Each structure stands twice: as structure tokens, then as C-alpha cells.
Amino acid sequence: xxxxxxxxxxxxxxxxxxxxxxxxxxxxxxxxxxxxxxxxxxxxxxxxxxxxxxxxxxxxxxxxxxxxxxxxxxxxxxxxxxxxxxxxxxxxxxxxxxxxxxxxxxxxxxxxxxxxxxxxxxxxxxxxxxxxxxxxxxxxxxxxxxxxxxxxxxxxxxxxxxxxxxxxxxxxxxxxxxxxxxxxxx
Length: 186
What we know:
7 helices
């Protein structure tokens, strides 16, 4: 199954949920974990098996934890400007034995990626300047065959503009989140 088919398939599985939801109980009880896109992230990490995943925008750590738990062989990093996000991720990683999960406190557009990223998830500030800047900054670090995921692509005019300017082949996955979700393919 190619990456685009895998994305579509796991998106549908996440929307249906039920028998496809084999997440550990602690993941299911994380903040907002009822949203289909968290199950999608877990299933995608489990089945795509990216060796390096990078999330921009840690917030409560729910997305990063789903990526790390879905593929414990991967390196999963999450970037946020808020120091408390790093502390939260460290606490969860210790409690859940997620040795593959790390948090970075930095402004995303100033962070330097050293190596290929297989799965990039852009979910930071939902303004054109920030989201588009993150896309431009990191897209060249995404390895051929890798995926760039975007949350909230329909949230506002700025995010719709950002999504329209994504140059890679892409697909919208609107059923994953009420404010839109998209994937682009390198």
C-alpha cells in the first residue's frame, strides 16, 4: 500500500473507531483523545513506521504521545515555545516509559533540523505567517516518501490560504477534525 492509500485508509479507520481502536487505555484518556485524528496519528505511526517524527505545537502532548506510542522504535520530537510543555512531555514519557519521546523548547522557525524527517505534523500557531513559515522551514527536511500533516486547515482564512499554497501533492481529510486536516506527500 502506498503512503497516500495508507493515509486515506487510516483516516477512515480512525473516523469509524471501534474495533480499530487498539490504543493503550492511558492514551484513550488523554485530553481530547476522543477526536478521531488522535487515533489516526496512532494508527499511522503504527503502520507507516516512520523512523523520525516531528510535531510542531506540543500543547498538552496528546499528539506526540500518540505518535510515540504508535511506534516505539521511532524518534519522536515535539517543539513548543512554552517551557511547561517540555516538562509535561518529560513527565508523561517517564510515566509511560516512552523512551522515544522528547520535547524541545524553541521557536519552531528558529529550530534547526539535522536529518531526515519521515512524518512532520504542523499544529502550532494557526496564523498564515507561522504555519506557512513552519511548512517552508521544515518541508526540505522531510525525506522522499515522507508525509507532512496539517491540523486546522479550514480554521480561518489564514489557514485556508496556507493550505492552498502547499506545493506537494496533497489530500484533505475533513472527517478527522471539524476545522480540517490535511496531508502532503514528499
